[in-house]
């Protein structure tokens, strides 16, 4: 696939979600089904191995098999795909990067090594070597709020200046001040923000989302994204209801019950009911009961009917 440039990375992207069997193995036939459905949803692109794709809980053989499966479907359907070459350690990330580059994705996602926080110089050194291994394919830096080193807009700008192959970032967004700094410092980068705040993010100049709303309903998330251009007021009103649902019914699983973000993304897919992924996570992370999805399904449909029109 032709590598994307920064300005071409935009829209609503959907993640792989690993169906996990009782014995903790990955159920590849069901993964194939999930990715095939995602590919048919009108989504802007598909990516592997973010948090929701459980990159931190895979053997290297599984990592390769997941990426090959996604590359096969996306090449066939001509859908842009990104591979997450992330790992908590630099050496394993570099090996993942080399193998990811061979599959010719549109871009490759990385995190910074995640044990002892890196200095700026170390982060630059890291990204330069990763960029060399990416062999002409652009890098997207993933910096979730729980990363060891949180990056401010100015630092992203510094990294971009030092490593031109860095073309995108995957961030938690921020308040009005954050977006102001983003516009000042993050030129030349595709900026992605959380799914449920995408309409306000787009209005502030962000470019898209690796989206939790696509976990809930990919086709509905795409319709909402299109509405951000055709009917920005309507899309903003829809965002208010989406945020209300997420804050009231989903976030407490993390803040009050201690579940992981990946547990919640799988719950969203189970609520949406468009793919048979299940809510199970890989050991040692705890999974949310499927019955919670059944309880929340009618609530989601009544708060956000537009997402479920199909
Ligand atoms: C709220 C939201 O959209 N969460 C999404 C996050 C954020 O986009 C990212 O952490 C930047 O904050 O990315 C994922 O974890 C991921 O790629 O696996 C999917 C998850 O649904």
TrEMBL record:
Which SMART domains does the record associate with it?
Answer: DHDPS (SM01130)
Kindly give the Pfam families that the UniProt entry links to this protein: DHDPS
A molecular-function term among this protein's GO annotations: lyase activity
- Which CDD domains does the entry link to? DHDPS-like
Does the UniProt entry include the keyword Nucleus? no
Keywords linked to the UniProt accession: Lyase
Gene3D superfamilies, per this entry?
Answer: Aldolase class I
Q: What PANTHER family does the annotation carry?
A: N-ACETYLNEURAMINATE LYASE
Q: Which family does it belong to?
A: Belongs to the DapA family.
Q: What is this protein called?
A: Dihydrodipicolinate synthase/N-acetylneuraminate lyase
Look up and give the organism this protein is from.
Answer: Paenibacillus eucommiae
């Amino acid at each position: 696939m032709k590598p994307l440039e920064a300005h071409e990375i935009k829209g609503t992207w959907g993640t792989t979600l690993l169906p996990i069997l009782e014995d903790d193995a990955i159920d590849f036939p069901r993964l194939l089904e999930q990715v095939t459905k995602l590919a048919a949803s009108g989504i802007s692109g598909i990516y592997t191995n973010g948090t929701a794709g459980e990159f931190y809980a895979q053997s290297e053989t599984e990592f390769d098999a997941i990426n090959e499966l996604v590359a096969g479907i996306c090449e066939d359907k001509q859908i842009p795909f990104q591979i997450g070459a992330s790992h908590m350690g630099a050496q394993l990330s570099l090996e993942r990067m080399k193998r990811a580059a061979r599959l010719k994705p549109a871009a490759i996602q990385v995190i910074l090594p995640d044990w002892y926080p890196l200095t700026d110089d170390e982060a630059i050194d890291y990204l330069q070597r990763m960029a060399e291994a990416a062999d002409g394919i652009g890098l997207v830096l993933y910096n979730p709020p729980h990363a060891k080193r949180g990056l401010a807009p100015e630092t992203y700008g510094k990294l971009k200046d030092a490593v031109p192959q860095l073309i995108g970032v995957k961030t938690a967004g921020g308040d009005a001040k954050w977006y102001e700094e983003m516009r000042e410092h993050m030129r030349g980068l595709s900026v992605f923000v959380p799914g449920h705040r995408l309409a306000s993010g787009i209005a502030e100049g962000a470019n898209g989302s690796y989206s939790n709303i696509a976990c809930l309903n990919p086709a509905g998330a795409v319709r909402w994204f299109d509405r951000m251009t055709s009917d920005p007021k309507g899309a903003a009103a829809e965002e208010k209801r989406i945020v209300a649902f997420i804050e009231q019914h989903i976030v407490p699983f993390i803040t009050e019950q201690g579940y992981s973000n990946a547990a919640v993304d799988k719950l969203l897919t189970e609520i949406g009911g468009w793919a048979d992924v299940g809510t199970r996570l890989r050991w040692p992370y705890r999974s949310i009961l499927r019955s919670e999805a059944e309880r929340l399904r009618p609530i989601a449909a009544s708060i956000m009917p537009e997402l479920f029109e199909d």
